[in-house]
């Protein structure tokens, strides 16, 4: 039994329906709120969503309004209800984007050092979305590659929509990618209970850090 069964195995239903695009954002919002005791940095969430083609035609203001609406919905109906509606509303081809966006948000919020709880969350999300191990690994590799490219970009960060982005998040992504992708010497390797992808975890026994697994 996972710590996030109350989300991924919930039978709750929301009071509204979502479009496939909204569903991608909803998965990110649910993941972010589950990781941080229902707190969500809307600006960071919007910055992550802007990196995905599915939101190419959405303005920053529109995405901010969407994230705010989804966060309020999750507070009212519950994280499980929003996840269930998002899962049912997603097109199959959008599952990788939902997973990648959620992982990227966690990495940014954690500044590259995922906690045991966050690792467990992303592993349970993979299982809930039904993503195979190989596909999940490919998604994570692509996320790291895109993060590194952001650091290497020069100039004033004018994107394909002609908007100028001077965001701290873009300046830090390369360093974050290096910290996560290159396993620290004293890190432990977490492998999910179902044999999903492995992730280095910077646990500190003196602070009570530990890695635990359960048979499935």
Biggest beta sheet summary: 2 strands, antiparallel
Number of strands: 2
Whole-number tally of structural domains: 1
Rg (CA only): 17 Å
Number of helices: 9
- Strands of the widest sheet, in order across it, are 1-2
Calculate the terminal CA-CA distance, rounded to whole Å.
8 Å
Structural class label: mainly alpha
Flag low-confidence runs: 154-185, 189-198, 200-216
User: What is the approximate shape?
Assistant: globular
Q: Give me the strand/helix succession.
A: HHHHHHHHHEE
Mean pLDDT, nearest integer?
76
Question: Approximately what portion of the residues adopt beta-strand conformation?
Answer: under 5%
As a percent range, the share of helical residues equals: 55-70%
Written description of the protein model:
The chain is mostly helical. It has one domain (5-207). Helix content is 56%, strand content 4%. The chain has a two-stranded antiparallel ribbon. Helix 2 packs parallel to helix 6 and helix 6 crosses helix 8 (133-152). It is globular and about 45 Å long. The termini are close together. Mean pLDDT is 76; it is low at 154-185, 189-198 and 200-216.
